[in-house]
Design goal:
- By secondary structure, this protein is an alpha/beta fold.
- Among the domains are: about 15-200, no CATH class; about 335-378, no CATH class.
- The chain is built from 7 helices and 16 strands.
- Strands 1, 4, 5, 6, 7, 8, 11, 14, 15 and 16 form a 10-stranded mixed sheet that branches. It has a 4-stranded antiparallel sheet with strand order 2-3-10-9, with no helix packed on it. It has a two-stranded antiparallel ribbon with strand order 12-13.
- Helix 2 crosses helix 3 (about 215-245).
- The longest helix has about 70 residues, at about 260-335.
- The radius of gyration is 51 Å and the shape is rod-shaped.
């Protein structure tokens, strides 16, 4: 690298940073996933180990692991950062103390098959990452000062990438520098670096507003491109989630908003379907119980009606009989021959009443009750 290039310091302007400065050589490696040693169908890339390293332009430098984010739920895994050489998809990402991504090889990728075979034959590849410069926040550590990052001390002059978005990981024959075991950390080769906030202990900053003022054309290009790509990605993702949810738009919007992965979307759909089926079963049981209750009520009502009819008829019949009987008894009590009936019946009043009734019946039939049947009046 030419000695005429000015090293990075607090007076450096964004436009003065060479694109080569965004190539980094850090320890890493390429291998098969540990749990997949036998099948060897998953690719594992270690992209960064959390350490502090020296760089020809930045001086001492490090990536803050607390500030790393993945650009997508599943990251591309390429060969030499070539988007036409797709070899795997990173479904697993580990940012605890390092940057490691893992994912299955693409089954129909010829390049993936070649790399997999070379690895099995013992060829040692290097790993490299690309991050989004447009959202990076860079802290400058001045000479003679120190800053902490990832539990380590970084001594100035140098920089710390406090916030950065991982876009993809690549398998390379060599890193950015040949004949090394370090990995290449690169960004776009163009100088359209977007909004980079470079701050240090003395608060020297490159803000969004300042970058927009100094590089309005570049800012507008980056902004519009990012906006268009973001909208397209969002629309495609929502459509994909909707298909996984079997056109359940309400669930699809919820999963999209929460940033769920395909596996989580399918799980959420299955849980909703299970809950819906359970609710239908509960509703069906409730309807059956309600129908049985109504049936029991109708049976009770019919039984009560039958009982009421029996009681009513019984009372009516009983009242008629009771009325005739009572009438005869009242008449017997008032009969002037009552005492004689009782005397002739040996003081049995009930037997006397029965005798009285026989006389009354004979009288009703037109027979003369007095002749021989009714006691003579003294």
């Amino acid at each position: 690298m030419s000695d005429k290039i000015k090293k990075f310091d607090k007076d450096t302007k964004l436009a003065d940073i060479p694109s080569e400065a965004f190539e980094f050589n850090l320890p890493g490696g390429v291998g098969f996933a540990a749990e997949d040693d036998e099948g060897k169908n998953n690719l594992r890339l270690q992209l960064y180990d959390g350490g502090v390293y020296y760089h020809w332009y930045w001086g001492n430098m490090a990536f803050d692991l607390d500030g790393v984010k993945a650009g997508k739920k599943k990251l591309p895994m390429l060969y030499a950062h070539d988007t036409d050489c797709r070899i795997a998809v990173a479904a697993s990402m580990d940012f605890e103390g390092h940057v490691i991504i893992e994912g299955p090889f693409l089954k129909r990728s010829q390049k993936a098959a070649e790399i997999k075979q070379d690895m099995e034959d013992g060829f040692v590849f290097e790993s490299s990452l690309r991050f989004d410069s447009g959202t990076s926040v860079i802290e400058r550590v001045g000479e003679g000062t120190t800053a902490e990052v990832n539990g380590r001390k970084l001594k100035g002059p140098g920089v710390i990438f406090r916030k950065w978005v991982l876009m993809e990981g690549s398998v390379c024959v060599f890193g950015a520098l040949n004949n090394t075991k370090a990995q290449a950390f690169i960004v776009n080769n163009e100088n359209s670096l977007g909004d980079i906030d470079m701050s240090e202990k003395d608060k020297t900053q490159m803000t969004v507003e300042l970058f927009k003022t100094d590089h309005e054309d570049i800012y507008n290009q980056v902004f519009e491109k990012g906006k268009a790509e973001g909208q397209t990605d969002a629309q495609d993702r929502l459509k994909q989630i909707t298909e996984l949810c079997k056109n359940d738009h309400e669930l699809a919007v919820t999963c999209f908003t929460e940033g769920k992965s395909d596996a989580d979307v399918l799980k959420a759909y299955a849980e909703k379907l299970e809950n819906k089926n359970k609710q239908l079963a509960d509703d069906n049981d409730a309807l059956k119980e309600k129908a049985q209750t109504l049936k029991d009520k109708n049976s009770d009502r019919n039984a009560l009606n039958e009982f009421s009819d029996d009681v009513t008829n019984g009372k009516k019949k009983g009242n008629e009989n009771l009325s005739e009987d009572e009438k005869l008894r009242e008449e017997f009590k008032k009969s002037e021959h009552r005492a004689e009936y009782i005397k002739k019946c040996n003081n049995d009043e009930e037997l006397a009443f029965q005798a009285f009734c026989k006389v009354k019946k004979a009288d009703a039939d037109g027979r003369n009750a007095v002749q021989g049947n009714e006691p003579k009046k003294k």
